[in-house]
Design a protein that fits this description.
Dihydrodipicolinate synthase; 4-hydroxy-tetrahydrodipicolinate synthase activity; disordered N terminus; 400 residues; TIM Barrel; 2 domains; 14 helices; Aldolase_TIM; DapA-like; alpha/beta
Length: 400
């Protein structure tokens, strides 16, 4: 299969390849998107096609189409689902505007239905609505090349496959799947391998493995299992929120060329890249997309000292996001940007005192974000904050 190419980059392919310093430009491990006329070799329909045919009957006759949105090295954001603060209905205008804001700031792809997206609080129809709204917002804003990854994890193989079909029909390009955990005591390593293999066999879109022990009763896929799964032609990457950079290095260097091994938190972006990762899918990008993307950019440009200092500021900010989760993230967005609202019940609504703590947790990071948004000008250096944030001011001076 020919590699996907990065046709929409602002740089030429040759320039970007040189600047990436070893990061894979192409996602050639991924299988092509299969059309609804896909058949197995004996002339019978595959399970993938049978499921899709049943879906198409209830989705206005839509059909498969090949994606032209390859996964590029860089920073991806798992976007929140925003709600009306009174009714808890989906706030689609905010979902759309937030998505566009992130991409304009340098985020190369979005993830819907992740942990930040409160997928566990959404009905299946709401999941489709959020993904479709995100895709439409990007297309309308001139970002039709930006891929959308959709969380499709479920406790049964069958439901996860159905979610993959829903994701495709809603405009998603890739599916991201957590391992099942409810019957954890009955699963073994082979069960997890079969789970991902079966989904990949029948999903109409390529999938990424999502390793997040904190969300699945401590299940932590090892590097042997992920590397074995990376050989499947319809498994094109993984997100490692476990924070194990040793595992990331083993997978990145053993998986097929183009496999998107990505960290799962912005506080170890630089470590992920040094270990051979292609980028990060991190919730902090919702708050400070430019700062998160700039860690990647500085590393690619070979500016290691600035990258290290910026990673330190980002890591301090990410600690606030890690402690506060989606509640803290939305509180920060509401405080600093005037939108965000609250999570769906039973998530708690923060008290004024908690809002003040979240505001302080992100203060240094958002001063850096402001500096980057203003073009790294000498006049924008926060010299008046040098006693409070000396490392921030030092970094800003280096970036001018």
């Amino acid at each position: 299969m020919p590699p996907h190419t990065n046709e929409h980059s602002g740089h030429s392919d040759s320039d970007l390849t040189l600047s990436l310093s070893g990061l894979a430009l192409h996602s050639e491990a991924g299988a092509p998107h299969l059309g609804s006329n896909h058949r197995v070799s004996n002339g019978k329909k595959s399970r993938r096609s049978i499921l899709t045919d049943s879906y198409l009957k209830t989705h206005n006759g839509n059909s498969f189409c090949e994606t032209h949105r390859p996964l590029r090295p860089g920073i991806y954001a798992p976007t929140p689902a925003f709600f009306d603060p009174h009714t808890e209905d989906l706030d689609l205008p905010t979902i759309k505007s937030h998505s566009v804001r992130l991409v304009k700031a340098g985020i190369v792809g979005l993830v819907t239905q992740g942990s930040n997206g409160e997928a566990v609080h959404l009905s299946q129809s709401e999941r489709r609505t959020v993904t479709a709204a995100t895709r439409k917002a990007l297309d309308d804003a001139g970002f039709s090349h930006v891929p959308v990854i959709v969380g499709c994890g479920a406790q049964s193989t069958r439901e996860s496959i159905e979610l993959c079909h829903d994701a495709m029909l809603s405009g998603g390009d890739y599916a991201m799947v957590l391992p099942p955990a409810y019957y954890r005591a009955l699963y073994n390593g082979e069960s997890q391998y079969e789970f991902f293999s079966d989904i990949a066999n029948d999903s109409p879109i390529p999938i990424l493995i999502y390793n997040y022990p904190g969300a699945v009763a401590g299940i932590d896929l090892d590097s042997d299992t992920i590397t074995k799964l990376s050989k499947h032609p319809n498994i094109v990457g993984c997100k490692l929120t476990c924070g194990n950079t040793g595992k990331l290095a083993r997978v990145a260097n053993a998986a097929p060329s183009g496999f998107m091994t990505m960290g799962g938190s912005s506080d170890f972006t630089l470590q992920s890249l040094i270990a051979g990762g292609k980028g990060v899918i991190g919730g902090l990008a919702n708050i400070a997309p430019k700062a998160c993307a700039e860690v990647f950019n500085l590393y690619v440009e070979g500016r290691s000292e600035e990258a290290e200092k910026m990673q330190a500021v980002v890591a301090r900010g990410d600690w606030g996001a890690i402690k506060g989760g989606v509640v803290g993230t939305k509180s920060c967005l509401q405080t600093y940007f005037g939108y965000g609202g609250f999570g769906r019940r039973p998530l708690p609504r923060p008290t004024p005192a908690q809002d003040a703590v979240y505001k302080e947790d992100f203060r240094e990071l958002l001063l850096l974000e402001e500096f980057l948004e203003n073009g790294c000008r000498d006049s924008g250096i926060h010299s008046d904050r040098i006693k409070e944030f000396p490392q921030l001011v030092e970094l800003e001076r280096m970036l001018v």
